[in-house]
Amino acid sequence: MGKSTFFKAATLANVEIANYPFATIKPNLGVAYCKVKDPAQDFGKISNPRDGYVKGEHRFIPVQLIDVAGLVPGASEGKGMGNQFLDDLRQADVLIHVIDASGSTNDQGEPCEVGEHDPADDVRGLEKECDMWYDGILKKGWEKFVKKIQADKSEVHIALADQLSGLKVTEDNVLNALEATSMVGIPANEWTDEQMFTLSRAIRIENKPMVIVCNKLDKANVSIVDTLREQFPMHTFIAAAADFELALREADRHDVISYVPGATSFNITNDNLTDAQKAALDTIATFIKDGTGVQKALNSAVFDVLGHVAVFPGGSKLADKDGNVIPDCFLMPRGSSALDFAYKLHTDLGKNFIRAVDIRTKQGLGKDYLLKQCDVIEIVAGR
């Protein structure tokens, strides 16, 4: 399906890439990067990130990426690497599900003829296994759980969030799921098995949103992406060719080309290429008029699905005491305020908050100001 290729393309980590089931046994940890315009450009400067890097006009912000073992039908029952796969997902904020859009990998992760397997089955398969996993955790010790919340007179969304805290489920996740399933106000001891499964699914959708990467699109009919979007309107689908992205990033690293991840073109910088290398780059150049999809998937996961915004602390001089321009960046959750940002920087800044300042406009901002993508903000606090 290409998930390890996607992981290596995104991180340039040294991982095994193979077209047989369970090439990934233990989870691979790596650092990938979401991409924004370098805010220092607006001030005629280039930023000096403490973490991440700048390439061209763009700033690349680090995020942790985990490549986990593959999934087969029955994973929630322990088949294949199922138990490990699901356990490795616990701490994820968003799932990037890489599927073989060419249909040349079956549901056991084995190679088959192009078009022989329906990629939609892979989407359904992951949804089903994750839903059954959540349902199993929710129902574990259910009678004891119900008696406890009745005895403690606990609010069910608070108790459920605590019950599912190992999955990073929040009270808001549970509240939203209860509302989506019209189960608000129904006593927990009256829930049927069907209602509990429906609730488990709703919590999973809230807690582990997905970006589906339609990989190997260079070998597939591009219309498959539109077909999948119609079948699964609740998901984000990204067309991709991870092997092309990996080739471009490796070529850039070895000074063969100049390439900015996510760009729709590249420049050849080495005159000593073989005919085979030139032909390969020509093929990639034709395909990436819309990008390879890898960077787009990372940005979509962080900014669109999770709704984070990249916010930069800054002052009138833009630089820290060592002369580093806008060295820091924070990914803040959707709906975060200037006061939230102050507390993120330091508790004392939050406690003694006076105002925030938009460094671009010099405008003063109140504590309730909602942060926007690529804001450069100074926090003014008292003593």
Q: Layout of helices and strands, plus pairs?
A:
Blueprint: H1 3-11, E1 28-37, E2 53-55, E3 58-67, H2 82-88, E4 95-100, H3 119-139, H4 142-152, H5 156-163, H6 171-180, H7 193-207, E5 210-215, H8 223-231, E6 236-239, H9 242-253, E7 257-258, E8 267-268, H10 275-287, H11 294-305, E9 309-313, E10 330-332, H12 338-345, H13 347-351, E11 353-358, E12 363-365, E13 375-381
Parallel strand pairs: 4-5, 5-6, 9-13
Antiparallel strand pairs: 1-3, 2-3, 7-8, 9-10, 11-12, 11-13
Helix pairs in contact: 1-9, 3-7, 5-6, 6-7
What this model shows, in words?
It is flat, with a radius of gyration of 23 Å. Helix 5 crosses helix 6. Helix content is 37%, strand content 17%. It has 383 residues and is an alpha/beta fold. The strands form four sheets. Strands 10-9-13-11-12 form a five-stranded mixed β-sheet. The protein has a three-stranded antiparallel β-sheet with strand order 1-3-2. It has helices at 3-11, 82-88, 119-139, 142-152, 156-163, 171-180, 193-207, 223-231, 242-253, 275-287, 294-305, 338-345, 347-351, and strands spanning 28-37, 53-55, 58-67, 95-100, 210-215, 236-239, 257-258, 267-268, 309-313, 330-332, 353-358, 363-365, 375-381. It starts with a helix and ends with a strand. The protein is built from 13 helices and 13 strands. The protein has three domains: 3-27 and 68-118 and 209-302, 3-Layer(aba) Sandwich (Rossmann fold); 141-206, Helicase, Ruva Protein, domain 3 (Orthogonal Bundle); 312-381, Ubiquitin-like (UB roll) (Roll). Strand 5 (210-215), helix 8 (223-231) and strand 6 (236-239) form a beta-alpha-beta unit.
